Amino acid sequence: MKQRLALVDCNNFFCSCERIFAPSLSGKPVVVLSNNDGCIISRSEEAKALGIPMGAPRHEQEGVIQKHGVKVFSSNYTLYGDMSARVMAILRESALETEVYSIDEAFLKLPGEFGEAEARALRAKVLRWTGIPVCIGMAGTKMLAKLANREAKKRRVETGGVFDLDACEDLEELMERVSCDGLWGVGKRLALRLAGLGIRTAAEFRWADSRQIRKSLGVVGERMWWEMNGVSCLPWEEIPPDRKGVMASRSFGTPLEKLEEVEEALAHHVARASEKLRRFGLRASRIDVFLQTNRFRAGEAQYCPAAGLNLDEPTASTSELMGQARELLHEIYRKGYRYQKTGVSLTGLVRAEAVQGCLDLDGVRKAKREVDAIVDRINQRLGDRKNPVITRGSMGSKHSPQRWRMKSGQRSPAYTTSWRDLPVAVLGGGSRRV
DNA sequence: TCTGGGGTCCTAGGACCC
DNA sequence: TCTGGGGTCCTAGGACCC
C-alpha cells in the first residue's frame, strides 16, 4: 500500500497566536517582530496585502505601519510554544504517526481512508479548538506534501485550505506552474544552478536526468529528485534526535566598543546557552565565540573574528564555559572597532549520563597503535613491505561511497549516495525544534 | 616514468530552512 | 538611527597517522 503523508502548516502562525487573544484584530493587518524588534518575521494576510515583505527591517516599513495602522507585536515564544503543543496534540489524534517538523508544521502519516473530506474536518477541528487556522497538503512524499500544502495555501478559497496531490487531475499542468525555487530545499542558489541546466519548473526538474541533477546539486539534489518523483527518501523522525549544538547570540541596540561591555553581553549568552544544555540533559565538548561589527555600514571598518576551543571534558557548567568564553573573547577582541553583535555556540554535544561511561577514545587509539605494531612485526618477520602478510583495514571505509566514487569514477547507488548512512539527512537542514 | 595509500579527525564555508 | 536568531547537512581540504 502506497504511503500517504500530509503536511499540516499553521497559517501566519505567530500572528494567528496573537490574534487569539485580541479577537478585535481579526481582519486587520498584524505583524510580529523578531527578537530585538528588528525585523518582521510574521505577517497576517492583510499585512501581506499591504506589500510588507517577510524579514523586512521594521524601520523600512514604519511608513506603511503608520499609514494603515498595522498592529505590531514583539515576539512571545512562550505563547507560540504553548499554542504549538495544543495544535500538535490534536493532529496526533488523526495520524498514524506524527513528525513535528517545526513550531508551526508537522508531517502526518495518514490512514488509508484519509482523504480531502477528512482533512477538512481536521482543519475545522484545529480551528475550533485552538483558534489557529491551518492548511493541509497531502501526497506520497515529504517534498510532494510540501508542494501540496503550498497549493492549498495559495488557492485557499477554492481548495478550502486542503489539497491532495494524489487526487489532482492535472498534475503535469500544476508542476509546470511551479518554479524550482518554490520547491522545498531549492533556494536562490540552487535555482540559479538549475536554471543553468535549463531547468526552471518542477515539471522540468522531475523529467530531468537524475545523473545530471546528482552531478550539479550533489546528493541533496538527487534526493529531491527522487522525492519529486514519488520515491520517499527523506527519513521519518517521529522522535527528534538530540540537538547537535546550541547557540545564543544577540545584536546590540547600539554598537559597543569597550571590552567589558562585550564581556557582559557574552556572559549573558553563555548563561542562556548552558542553561539550555542542562535542560536537554546535554554537555558540550566544544565552545566557539564570535564578534561582529555592523555589516550594513559599508564605510566602517569591518571585523568579524571567531575563536573556538575543544574542551577536555564535556560540560554544561555555566562558570566553566564562562571562563573559556572570556579567554576566547580576549583572544579575538581588538580595540577600535564598533561591535554590533556577539554570541556563543556550543557543539559536540553528548548526553550528560553518557559522559560517565563514555568511550575512552585515547584508550581506543592506543589499542589500535598496539595492534598496528603487532601487524608490522608479523609482516617484518614473514613477508616484505610490498607483500604484507596482514593488511590493515578499517571497517567500511574502503567502501565509503566517496572513496569508491573516486576510484571507480562512478556514482554510488542512489540510496547509498553519501559516505554517511543514507537516507539520513533532512533536506537542507532546517530549524526543527519547538 | 613512477614517486604509497588508506585511514581519522577537525574546521571552514556553502546552502537551505523556519 | 534602526537591519533576527537558531538550526541542519554536505563538501572540501588540511593535519596527522602508520
TrEMBL record:
Q: Write out the GO MF terms.
A: damaged DNA binding; DNA-directed DNA polymerase activity
Region described as Disordered: spans on this chain: 387-412
Q: Which Gene3D superfamilies match?
A: 3.30.70.270, 3.40.1170.60, 5' to 3' exonuclease, C-terminal subdomain, DNA polymerase, Y-family, little finger domain
One Pfam family of this chain: DUF4113
Cleavable signal peptide = none
UniProt GO BP: DNA repair; error-prone translesion synthesis; SOS response
Q: Which UniProt keywords apply?
A: DNA damage, DNA repair, SOS mutagenesis, SOS response
- Cellular component, GO, one term: cytosol
What range(s) does the UmuC domain occupy? 5-187
The UniProt entry's sequence similarity note says: Belongs to the DNA polymerase type-Y family.
The entry's protein name is: UmuC domain-containing protein
